[in-house]
Structure formats: structure tokens, C-alpha cells
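Ticket #4471: structure output looks truncated?

Reporter: J.K.
Steps to reproduce: submitted the chain below (111 residues) through the standard prediction queue, then opened the result file.
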Amino acid sequence: MNKEFRIKKNKEIETLLSQNKKVGNSQFSVYYVNRPDAAHFRFAVSVGKKYGTAVERNRIKRQIREIVNRAEIGVLVDFFVIVKPSAKKLKFESVKQTLTNLFARAKIIEG
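Returned output as attached by the reporter:
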């Protein structure tokens, strides 16, 4: 996944959060905003320190980046995934299924 697909600036993330378009469950929250003028989708991932050690936080971020990379996202959208501490007990397949369901609810992917 190229870095051009990532949102890095705090101001852009705050803009996403202020739009108040959100789907979520007990493990993840996904904030999103449609951007019809964009060239491609962009995303950011946030994992708080309550989730666990740096190794655990980096692992879930790598897993989410891989899930997004494999997802067929055809919509021009910016989205922000927040990982909650309760997601720590999920295996990769459960994380993938949960995020895919949330992306479908947000109409980021079809399904």
C-alpha cells in the first residue's frame, strides 16, 4: 500500500471527525467522508495505548492496512479507523470480517 493512500495530517483527521459520519461496534469505529474530487481513497488508523504494548499496537495496524489493501474499495472516500481495546482478543479472520461489515455499512465497499 503506497503512502499516498494514508492520511497523516492531524487537521485532515479532525475534519473527518467533525463530519460526524460514523459506523462502529464494540471493537472498532470508522469515521468517513465522501470526496468525489479525489483521485483515490485515503485512510488512517489509530490505536490507543490502552490496547497494549507497542508491538501489539503495530501488529493490529499492519493487519488493518492489509485488510484495506485487499478490500475492493472503489469509492472516493477518506476514512479513519479507531481500534478499541476490546479488539485485542480478536483473531485476524474476526478482525477482517468485522471491518468488512463496517465498511459495507459505511458504503465504502459493496456487500
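Triage note (M.O.): checked the attachment and the full C-alpha cell line is present. The chain has one domain: 3-105.
Status: closed, working as intended.
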